[in-house]
Amino acid sequence: CDQTPLQAVLLEIGRELESCKGEGNVADYIPELGNVNPDKFGIHLTTLASEHFAYGDTEEKFSIQSISKVFSLALVFEREGERLWQRVGVEPSGNPFNSLSQLEYEAGIPRNPFINAGALVICDHLISHCSMPKQTMMGFFRTLAGNPLIGFNQRVYESEKAHSYRNRALINLMKSYGNITNDLELVLDLYFFICSIEMTCRELAQAASFLANSGVNPLTRQQVVSSSKAKRINTIMQLCGFYDEAGEFSFKVGLPGKSGVGGGIMAVHPGKYSIAAWSPRLNAKGNSCLAMKALELFTTRTKMSIF
Ligand code: GLN
């Protein structure tokens, strides 16, 4: 793509969205997440040819929250292979990210790895596979983003731990069905840790780029996951990345993507680019109002959606 138009499109979108800044509310069920400036907005795109285009607060760290679920899935799927799908499904849930109801009538098997229950099963696998799962995850993010300084936010981690009633209910229910093998506290602790990792839009777009590149990290040329696994992870993002708003995101944006309650959204166009947008105010489904709008405008104006 010609550089000037892409940069110009981001600039135009950023300016246009200034007028929508008051929409939605910052997540406060994890109290520490409420302590951000709600009107921050950034969008960063990186192509597989290592071109970078950005607008707004793209160098500011934010809590990646559920976006982390894509990366923990990638690590575990690569190690566990197809057996993974015996304990977690690949169907859209059509329910909120922290919903308990399907677990009950589906015998403790979460619908997919991107709702909280599914991500807890993935964390259980991580503990079984790695002797130091926190270090392994952190190393994974640092390598993918090309930044050894990526870290986590202790206050967010503790805040989530202190208000973890839903996640505790989910893991206990799954345990009762025999779908959690390690110590519950260890699994929860790892989950909160991964959710509290902080990254910038630029780092997140870079970290996602292996999914646009048939599983190969474009920075290191290392095969992170096989190309078939990259295809499958993208498919799950397409179908399940936005909980009960996955259809809406697909419909409006037309890219596989994943959101988090910190207000971030990352998305990929296989073979072309990866993109991350962030703005803390969320809609009722827990997805960033402005980030979603920005991506919708971006793929509509550039026609750079997968459809
Ligand atoms: N850490 C959050 C939770 O477990 C993640 C939710 C999200 O980003 N959708 O509730």
TrEMBL record:
The biological processes this protein is annotated with in GO are: glutamate biosynthetic process; L-glutamine catabolic process
Signal peptide residues on this chain, from the entry's feature table: none
Q: Which residues are noted in the entry as substrate-binding?
A: 66, 116, 160, 167, 191, 243, 261
Q: Which reaction does it catalyse?
A: L-glutamine + H2O = L-glutamate + NH4(+)
Its Gene Ontology molecular function terms? glutaminase activity
Matches recorded under Pfam families: Glutaminase
Where would you find the membrane-spanning parts of this chain? none
Its keywords, alphabetically, are: Acetylation, Hydrolase
NCBIfam families in the record, alphabetically? Gln_ase, PRK00971.1-2
The record's similarity note reads: Belongs to the glutaminase family.
Q: What is this protein called?
A: Glutaminase
Name the species this protein comes from. Desulfopila aestuarii DSM 18488
Which taxonomic lineage does the organism of this UniProt entry have? Bacteria, Pseudomonadati, Thermodesulfobacteriota, Desulfobulbia, Desulfobulbales
Identify the coding gene.
Answer: glsA
